[in-house]
Queue: 4 jobs
Job 1
Amino acid sequence: MSTQHIRNFCIIAHIDHGKSTLADRMLEKTGTLSRVNVDQVLDDMDLERERGITIKAHSVTMSYKHTAGKDYTLNLIDTPGHVDFTYEVSRSLAACEGAVLVVDAAQGVEAQTISNLYLALENDLTIIPVLNKVDLKSAQVEAVSQQVVDILGIDKSEIILSSAKAGQGVDEVLAAVVDRIPPPADNPDQPLRALIFDSIFDSYRGAIAYIRVFEGQIVPGMEIKFFSTGKKFEVAEVGVLQLDKLKRKKLAVGEVGYCIPGAKQVEDTKVGDTIISASNPATEPLPGYQEVKPMVFSGLFPTENEDYEELRSSLERLKLNDSSLMYEPETSQALGFGFRAGFLGLLHMEIIQERLEREYGLDILTTVPNVEYRAYTKAGELVLVDNPALLPALGVLDYIQEPYISADIITPTEYIGNIMKLSQDRRGIYKNTEYIDQTRASLHYDFPLAEIIFDFYDKLKSLTRGYASLDYHFDDYRRSDLVKLDIMLNNEPVDALSYIIHKDKAFEWGRKICSKLKELIPRQLFEVAVQAAIGNKIISRTTVRALRKNVTAKCYGGDISRKRKLLERQKEGKKRMKQVGKVELPQEAFLAVLKVE
Amino acid sequence: MVKGCEPNPLAGETATPGIGPQQKPAGLYIHIPFCDIRCGYCDFFTLADRHEQIPAYLSALHKELDSYAATTPFGQAEFDSIFLGGGTPSLLNPHQVDSLLSFIHSRFTISVDTEITLETNPGTVDLAKLRDLRSAGVNRLSLGVQSFRPEELLFLDRDHSVDDSIRCYDHARKAGFDNINFDLISGLPSQSVQEWQFNLQTTIELGPNHISAYNLTFEDGTPLTAQLRRGVFRRPPTETERRMLLLTVEMLAAHDYPQYEISNFAHPGATCRHNEKYWNGNPYLGVGASAHSYVSGKRFWNVSNLKAYLEGLEQKQAPIAGEEVLTNKELDFERAYLGLRQRSGINLRHFEAERGVSVFTRYASTLHKFFSLTFEDPCLNEAYTNGNRSLQGKHLCLQDGHLRLTREGVLVCDAICSEFV
């Protein structure tokens, strides 16, 4: 069978522009799913639904009868919608021949519209532009159409107007998928090469790889090899996805589906890797594979020291289905035994944290996230610093490099001033401005990653009334004038509160962090001196005064049990805090840096 | 309690609990829930305007007392304190008190020198009634004075005047009461330290034998707490409460009323024997609605409902609402926290004898923390084993075989006690 009847495509859009709704309508129109099913079926994790974002990409196979009468198989490959997951998006795009580009007719082109579009163009995809939500009162069909024409350099007539919510334009989009997107290249006789564009972990079946077959075919029983690791497995099952897994005898060239290789962890089925035949191996992998590299690091500590082993086993289980999670044991003087974990970004970190708490019932304490620095000693030695505590001492240290990202900010022109000011505060290096049309511009900046991982996006949103959008990707490491700011409580440094910061900001931050900690540390039996220091130099100091009065009167016959329980509860409250020397620190204290204005 | 750790007249007097010939006598508490009005701050089980039920209630008390007299352990116990609390037990007429006390004497073993306390509201008694109560056997009066400032009495919903209190005290002395307590409440909203000082000064001039000075506690479910939450008034600043407590301790000590428990002050020899039973883990039997009892590590309590109480006894059923058997950990903690709340502190020898573990072993890390010692430091062990050595911390001191709060420690007693959980 040839590949003429197959179309592989994805939908790309800025967040909330209607990607999931359009996908749902396509599933309905093709009869893959009836309208009664839960909305937005492609996102099947609770967390995803709550946060309104797609975290893991999945695919779905639809049968479609074209208006011309022929039957087609359409494979829709979903893409994650957050900047933390750019690599995963690019691998999903690589599995397709075309992309439906959805733009909100009211919002217009946004940063992710463009970054996703560029990713799609890098993968040589055919683009089908769709203007969604045209029925909204605030829709600016003309203006936004012009934006699309300008960025794509296409004819306006190619744009499909739709309202996915109302079902309008969905048929046109389906027809265009068949008419405009080319079928997959037909290479049935070559040795197997299949791209893993996603993988998940199933507690019964082990790792499940979502794949696109580019050459050859994959059948159960066949011995396969993963190109990047060289590991061999025997295929247990293949099939296609129609919400549920549908077993097939094989996946042939051009087809999209799943493969269960009998691997015990998703570490073995790396996104972007190429599956080849063990007996007749292809010599080259498919292009574009990268080892996933964490960008943000943070310490994870159990609130109760005795939960350490449980945290370890929970991380092991999370790692089974999230190969981008990295961790290694860490010992903190203040917090005891825990782990230093690496994440793709802050969102990824929050998701892991929440999953540990919700799915594994753990009470964990996260330290302030940081990026990975490169410290060079005077002896010329390179030290990778993913934990401020590891920074070489001042006498030994020569200089430090920090990761920079290159950012695109799309904004209505009236907010350019605000954004420039914010960017300057965040040590941004201005590159240039491009005007999308008369009212919207795209600002290009380089930023130290450390300056944008916390609240940059929130700040950007609030300074532009929610209109600006941001997209960024890692650029390179650059030398910066950075220092380590230590926090001391009663003259004892608390390693978990140390923080690497630019020299020019250190004094003000030291002062703000001290006063924030003063707010967060409750009064206790002993006075607590809070100091910020760089090396041996104290740059700021505040004091949390000791409790002045904490005694209740009356303790007679009936009060004794009641009072005992009250005191027990008082003790419970203290237990939730972390004992650092004599000081009881509430969990929020470890994230005080994040709360500094 | 002017200084951290002066020798205490009570040191060594801490009792060993239990019931039996060689053990400490028990206390008997009788709850009389009736009141003329209900005060806004009160969270005891009380009933206003139900006086017609008093006879039925007294006969139910007889039945309940009877049931304990016939059984172990209280039937065999010796009692040396009886406390009529409430409510307003002084609403009972002298005859009712007399027959209640006679009944108790006829059913239980009551020591010759038993302390018999009656809680009395100043507005409810005159000289004649006080004479009759004294004749009935009551030998200690606890007067609910609360304040000597009219506006404060009004705020507290008290239905007596300042004059009533002074007159009542005078009559009580005339009637032959030589052991009298004043209840006082400090820390009222907008009360100044000077205003509280006036109450203390007036009290000192009158000269009761014992003073219970409470910081106003906002208990859940009281009208006063509801008003506080609605923002009708605000609590005094912590600093004011702290100064009031310090002033109380200093002023009363200067007039020979050393503090012997967080809220209790007495001339030497006039401490309240009944309350000390609560604090020292001695057995006590509580009868009447809502009353609590304790014996051998078990605490149980009666229903807080008049109808249920009366009907239960009518049907010969114990009106018990609940019980708890204390775990070893809870027993350790109660000994520790109740000990620390007293001037005598935790008697280390008694604790070990009673609990089978030394304070030093049981609370090693807590003690090291409070005395800023490392575990290698032999100091604590020396002070523990050698009575002549002492250790002084900011909040605790260890001296002559007792662990006590310092004056600063008294002010943050709850935060310290919770470390002994």
Job 2
Amino acid sequence: MIPGAFEYHRPKTLVDAVTMLASLGEDARPLAGGHSLIPLMKQRLSAPSHLIDLAGIGDLRTISEENGALVLGAMVTQRALLASALVQVKAPLLIEAAQQIADPQIRALGTLGGNVANGDPGNDMPAVMMCLDASYVAQGPKGMRHIKARDFYHGAYDTALAAGEILTAIHVPIVAGQGTAYEKLKRKIGDYAVAAAAVVLTMANGKVATCSIGLTNVAPTPLWAKDAAAMLVGTTLDAGSVKKAVAAAEAITDPASDGRGPPDYRRKMAGIMLTRALARAASRAA
Amino acid sequence: MAKINVTMTVNGEEVSGLAEPRTLLVHFIRETLNLTGTHIGCETSHCGACTIDLDGVSVKSCTRFAVQAEGSHIRTIEGIAHADGTLHQLQESFRQMHGLQCGYCTPGMILRAWRLLQENPRPSEDEIRHGISGNLCRCTGYQNIVKSIQHAAAALNGETFAEAAQ
Amino acid sequence: MNDMTPTREAREAKLEGMGCKRKRVEDVRFTQGRGNYVDDIKLPAMLYGDMVRSSYAHARVKRIDTSKAEKVPGVVAVITAETLKTVNLAWMPTLAGDVQMVLADGKVLFQNQEVAFVVATSLQAAADGVELVEVDYEELPVIVDPFKSMAADAPVLREDLAGKTEGAHGKRDHHNHIFKWQVGDKPLTDEAFNRADVKIDELISYHRTHPSPLETCQCVASFDKIKGELTLWGTFQAPHVIRTVVSLISKLPEHKIHVIAPDVGGGFGNKVGAYSGYVCAVVASIVTGRPVKWVEDRMENLSTTSFARDYHMRTEIAATKDGKVTGLRVHILADHGAFDACADPSKWPAGFSNIITGSYDFPVAHLCVDGVYTNKAPGGVAYRCSFRVTEAAYAIERGMDILAQKLGMDPAELRLKNFIKREQFPYQSALGWEYDSGDYHTALNKALVAVDYAGLRAEQKAKREAFKRGETREIMGLGICFFTEIVGAGPSKNCDILGLAMFDSCEIRIHPTGSAIARVGTKSTGQGHETTWAQIIASEIGIAASEIMVEEGNTDTAPYGLGTYGSRSTPVAGAAIAMASRKIKAKAQMIAAWLLEVHEDDLVFDIDRFQVKGVPERYKTMTDIAWVAYHSPPPGMEPGLEAVSYYDPPNMTYPFGAYICVMDIDVDTGVAKTRRFYALDDCGTRINPMIIEGQVHGGLTEAFAISMGQEIRYDEMGNVMGASFMDFFLPTAVETPHWETDHTVTPSPHHPIGAKGVGESPNVGGVPAFSNAVNDAFSFLGSTHIQMPHDAWRLWKVAEKLGVTG
């Protein structure tokens, strides 16, 4: 398992990286933690001629709070995320999701940017970001733009990122009083989800005030289950309402058949994970 | 493809060598630096036999290019024993608690445990099991590996290892 | 005697002999990364080989164009079947009496089959060369399902066998048939079924899986043209057999072949066979005149070298209505893949599957096995078990549970009722084995008490009621397995590999100063032979284990042995070690008698010395004796103190054990959690309890993996699915259950030290225990048998079918 040959670049600034990516054309790929890209290259399923390593760009590793949002640099590793007191307080859902990604070594190098940007439906963070209504900052030859996570995923490995653009940061809105949960069913440590569900909700007077649901690895893209979430608003999360919402969420899934199980199983597991995530999120809501 | 000169500090010594950009760090360590204690078991970053310590974190050197490690500080299994040649407590504990059989996963397992005990000097059994979940072992069933790490943790903390009753 | 004289206890402790939890000598190098595995070997001018593999499961190879690959800078040669034909090596014999393509010759018969071998100056160049070898295929119809292999219109897989109605094991009934093997008395068995009160009849499948040691298969071949000598370092469980095979197929004289197995990173049966990569590396070294290294990657390992199992066992048991078994009738359909490359003793095409009567006193039985070809990888190795023993143990242990369910009897009670009794040993089984020893009732009763079996059954009853009332979504299962293994192949009267009797060997040389080297025909792949073999010698002749170096794996220095697999090391080589030790001891006794001026019969051996009977202060230690042997041996006696033993065992050994698994299954997800696993093993005399426990832990973990999800799957096109550690289930420390171990000791009556072997028991016994727990959990809902593997989605499907999912 040896990758094809390529040229290696390690720009020091984001501007250099963007310029490089633009000038080197379609055969150039940015390299973050490498845990999606390098295995693909080793199997020669991906053979870029140029790799632009973003590791030399210091500003991509920061975690801060700006204007009511958590701003996470694209090169923040899962490990760094887990160690951030700020994230623990402001966005515990990210912590819960990151804990369930792969294993300690992979979390040490795997980045948030890589996880959300490459469009692998197996990655956990995309559905979580959709659930949290995060947006991504993309830097390209034409400048910077924000893309909603909910508008970002077009198909497996197909995203709204244009040629020449680099995803540089993630903005996660901070909302007080949310109850959140990420329920992931997997065969073992290191596996992608059979199905996983992210839930963010707020409660008022015993009823759901707001609700958002993301689903992982049960379709060619991560899913934002908008209708299912809407059905729960105003309910007490009684069994009947939950059942209806779960059915609505299951209905938008389109899981692949693989070693994790056939589609009907994975669809049902999306529902079971959602049911469990709803209960846990509600118990955590202020 | 032209080779690039790569310089890094390995086990406290600055080393350099030529590598193609596509040369994996594990191959650089094994083939160029001749440090063959770091093993290759799966090549897809699942087994952890290639685990090394890179700039203070455990990483899988099969999923990293050597050029990415330019300027890094690396520790491999060859750099774990004390300078006088005596075994590190973890190495001793793996031997005492029968934490290895074929020995193939052992360097990666010890490197991971070495970092784990610095991150968390008094890990619970569950924390150990999660802490080494990126390292596969085919021989031991992990039970004695967990025990080895507990044994080492106790010794490093100056405590007596009390084996949990079955 | 003064105060400085060591006590008997101190002398005994210093030996670190049998029964001692001696720490392993191997660990000093392994914990420091100083092992020497094959991939660590680097020779001057060494080349790297990489394999071009078939994308199709069944196709005609129309054209192989190597020209582009040959132009890659660094590529030195590309070898195809045409190259191999010039040295008559396009095909090679298998251990099972079949032949197998080394590289695709006209067609391919399984996905990832070896097609061409690229040799280059670097790993990178070899991989680039592989990318550029162009192969044109014409797809052919594929057989994946063994039940379709022998259909009248099934495609012909093995065109090379056209017209051959006789195979290595008798008549072939169909062009995709390999053999039919039958044992037992069919008319009497049929009669027992005709008269039975109760019968069960179930197709019990044991799915295809893979041993997958952490180190893949690999080798370095170095041919010295001047000397005409070949040195082959490799991941070999049986280096001597490899040397003989290489000699037979390459026509190089055996004395000019040096096979060396250095440290090996796990075997589990994967490293018994001879693979295309080895042959290609050897040929490439001969062709290029340079050393050639070949290292499998994980995908190649999982999809090509040596699958295990793939046995489909229609199992019928006849019994009286009060639960006494009266007959066993089994038909096995054995999927051997594209070539019959099973690693069994030559006369045993289905291994020792006739151990299938298990631990029970069946008056009559009949077993019939049909082996068939399919478009899957060849292999059929004994993955941490003696030959096909784990399949047999699975069928009978599942069968007994199914019978218990049908009778409404407790599965433990049914077993106790049908066990072979202690006084029946040596016991002649209905399918032809002589069980050497056993005490099954004691073992199972001890296990039942240890886990509070009655209490667990009561808890299960309450949980089932609660489940029915809708108070829990969890069901609880109790799995019992009582297995009997047959290991230690084996007696020359019925066991050989390629005509080589399955003895094993040991040579011991005591040095003048009283330390020693022992060389053995086995090869440790993690079992710790360097530690335990020395313990046997220490106890036998009284030299401290720390003063004995054990060496294995070098065919130039070690005596010929058949290697390590099928739990044969302790039963066969362990016996050879004891016998060689006794030869040394006998000579030592003569020397001691001469030195002490008494008759040999007046001496008694005591720990580390011979002493005059009744006069313990008159003695000679083994160290004293060793010096004399080299310095001034008794008149007429040859100097020196060494011995060699080739041990041909009189019988197999029959380890047994009682395993109990407690499991909880979430019916909403199908996720099963092992709450408790208790394993009692009886492997006879215990050489090193620490190592035994480690072996049991490891084997149980493999059993857990196999039963709960580890599988080599194919789609209907013959594409191998999930051949990586993402999909192939190797549990991490998080999923792996906690293991409780226990033992009884029933020594083997025919083995010099009474030992039976243990490394494979936990795999053999573990799988049925897990599967029985799963089946037991669902049984109250009307389920009889659930096929493995028991991964979550399959269990959820069972729950869905039974109408209990949410």
Job 3
Amino acid sequence: MSETSETTETTGTETANPPPPNAEDEIIRFDNLSKRFGDVTAVHPTSFSVRRGEFFALLGPSGCGKTTLLRMLSGFHAPSEGRIFIDGEDVTALPANRRPINMVFQSYAVFPHMSVGQNVAYGLKIARVPKDERARRVEEVLSLVQLNGMAERRPSQLSGGQQQRVALARALVMQPKVLLLDEPLSALDAKLREHMRGELVRLQKQVGITFIIVTHDQDEALSMADRVAVMNGGRLEQLAPPQTLYESPSSRFVADFIGRINFFAARVVAENGARVVASPVLGTLAPALTPPSAAEGEEVTVALRPEKIEVQASPPTGDDPRTRSLPGVIAEVSYYGDYCTVEVDLRGAEGSQRVTSFVPNAIRETGVQFSPGQEVWCAWWSSDILVIDEAAN
Amino acid sequence: MKKRLREPFSYTRRPGFVIFFGLTLVFLYLPILVLVVFSFNDSRRNIVWRGFTWDYYGKAVGDGDLMRSFANSIIIALTSTAISLALGALLAVLLWRFRFAGKSLLEALSALPIVMPEVCVGISLLVFFSAIGWPTDLPWPLNLGNIILAHVTFTFPFVMLVVRARLVGFNLELEQAARDLGASGAQAFRHVLIPYMRPGLVAGGLLAVTLSLDDFVITFFTAGPESSTFPIKIYSLLKRGVSPDINAASTMLIAVTLVLASLGVFFQARASRREAPLRGGDGDGDGDDK
């Protein structure tokens, strides 16, 4: 997956042309899909593709349109405009029961009046799959989700995690082209949630079906998905692998939504005939960081992740040209066990600003030895500075 | 081990509550108990206990008119309940599922027969049936038609209310899940919504049967000489004085009602027991997940 192909796909949402269809690779294509409820636009025209066999995440805060997008894909909402293709076939007009995809609902929606086995067999029964084959496939899929021997149980006898497995089995037994998961882990307690993440990834690799998960939890999306589509206000903000999202966010929203980050105000200025980014706190950045499309005088956002800032008790000695450092005073220290967040009032050339840094609690005997009021130096690699050019989006 | 605290709601340990509870029971059930006991009294006049006998049950069962009215009541109750169930359930689904102009008006109008004085309903039906020229000389059991329709008008709002109350708790994702797994709209309705409504249908149906069985006022206005029901027959027997066979007949009616009501309670309890631990959106997952 090259960097450039990601960019092409992301910018594809803004231009009218959808990315060129690649029948080999894509299983789902949204083509200028939009949804309005009365005067409210839930999803602005959006185009992107999901690749065959990938674990795909739709990530965004509540009300960002991710659920509406999922419901249009499953067939419960009709799009206002645009088309949906599943495996090359236009399914825009197909009702939910005739689309080759299945869904794990947020509430699991396990039928309370049927046994586990009857729940899992329901779709096969509707599809008139012969009884023998039905029994075989139900048994297979129950052992796949580790519910062997539970076929006779009533849903009310199962724990929340087990009910979720029933919902998974019930969808997987249909051998769908795509499995949709609507906030599947939101109702589980923290420990089980962690466990189920790994389980879902394992299951996806095992069955090889494309998974699309909708979630508002960035940890969930980053840890499970091959690629993540970040949505905000009914628009696609960025579509990229987790690492690209985190290290090269294309917008201030993505940078802010995923992980924690320090923002600095900055402006493009001319210096010695070259356009460079200058910030009151950080000073002038390396010319290589200047966004190519940014005009002189334009305001840009400069950002730095907290874990990329190293807090030091003494002035940096080595004079590595690739690093930068600034003095400051610690304002606050919060202890989290494995690390501390240290808030430092950074003193720049033409102003000061409070930044957050993560300091790992690396050595047990010394711990993290910083306290408020202490004079410190913050250092970072110049290449860790992010310059986000909002105007380019 | 801590000493067990006295449970705050153990009424039986407080004599005041026991007396109060006992008086309530006496107030509610003593008259009925007297009726039932004297149905076994071996005396024509019904005032002094003379010994146990089944005679008056035999007499009541042997009374052709009484048994015909009993059969009428059963036919009316079953038929009107079947119609009420279909009508009430569909109306409940309609009001629950859709938004449309005049919905709140329809809602209010369909619940109105519950509070309407029965005498008014009875008279209005009497006037209505004669105004449209409803035939009065139909052969049995078609002559029960107008009573059946009259009973539908006051029983279906109850069915509607009970089913509607049940539907409030329905998780729409259940129906969507069925659709998602390939079911058509009709199949999803049959396989998911109706099983979900079942406890409400059973409760509403039993309510309708009971209401229909013992209705007097409305039936009185709509029944013809050939189509009298059990309660009306008992009333007409009363004109000739209270005799133990009336007690026996009434006791049979009580028994039928009691059985139906117990069935209702049983089905309701079974349904809520089955669903109780099912998650709606708060699954805990602390069970055995391995």
Job 4
Amino acid sequence: MIPVSVVTGFLGAGKTTLLRRVLADPAWADSAVIVNEFGEVAIDHELLAASEEVLVNVSTGCLCCLVRTDLGTTLMELRRKRAAGEVPAYRRVLVETSGLADPAPILHALMTEAPVAETHRLLSVVTLVDAVLGPAVLGRHPEARRQVMLADRVLVTKPDLGDAAAAEAAVRRLQPGLPVRAAERGAVEPGWLFAPGEPVVPTDAEARHSEGVGSIVIEREAPVAALALTLWMQALAEHAGAKLLRLKGLVALAEEPARPMVVHAVQHLVHPPEWLAEWPGDERRTRIVLIGQGIPRHFPARLLAAIEAEVATA
Amino acid sequence: MTPPELRDLLSDALALWEVPGRVGVDGGGVVLAGLRVAAASKDELPIRWWIERAGHRRPCTSVSGLLRGVRNAVGAGEGEARRLRVAGA
């Protein structure tokens, strides 16, 4: 499986600058980069210093609108060329979206298109928010908010030019607890940036809801039965629909509470569950974060409680 | 699920489905939008809930079925057609 990370962020957030920096790191030079530029004249890919053979530009429009054809085709063609020795044996793929892209269709394509999902694995979503315009952009543009809500990590760019604390606060209003760092001109360790996404439990209860979007946290002291978890996720997908943007968490399953199961879903699409070897830290309880829009705050927890009670008496 | 717990769950569900209305406790069940939802007795298992409306009774055997039944009854559609799907499957 070839790991794929998605780098997103609104127009001018500094995605290309970041990728230039990442690719200059010898440990990350063996990355294939797919650049999606919105517009007829592609420029960003010219700015990247990656090997030409593993740099692909998709400039026919916004990737999120074309994703079911272009991204899948591009990834599979790259893979074919790698196998044939026509391009260097890259170890990962970095997808730079256009600034106007909604990441959800891109993630869907990575997770569902049959040949792509069988050969590639979505590793992480990195979103850039610039310290100068970021807070205003997040307030005005739903695409920018979705980029943050679907992120595993956020990099605040241009902290030397703007108010990084305000940008971070704007991010945390959408996804409290999200790992956020600030860096000038992409000066951040790629290992942190592209680490696999892990669920984060927000701690700032006041920030969990704003403008109908935000995160909802489910915590359970007692392990959750696998059947209850499955029925709950099914009911959420059925009734929340597109309002549920993302779900991620660590679950103590009643059937195997000694190690946590990682659940990760984008809307109604669920990653195959993975298991961690052991619980990170001292807390061994279920913690699930839902990122959504217009979902009543207590609905997920009330639904889970009702289903758990039902399963317990079945 | 107690009647107040059922009221709270269905109130949230109405908000999620963007259906205006209130849910109130009514004896052993709740009332909403011209419906009454009542818990079935233990000897009626596997039926757990009844959705009652103008002389009709619809049985529900699960919370999921109850939500689906209420959603249909209040005219909020049939939910997300795309069911849970495992990536790559």
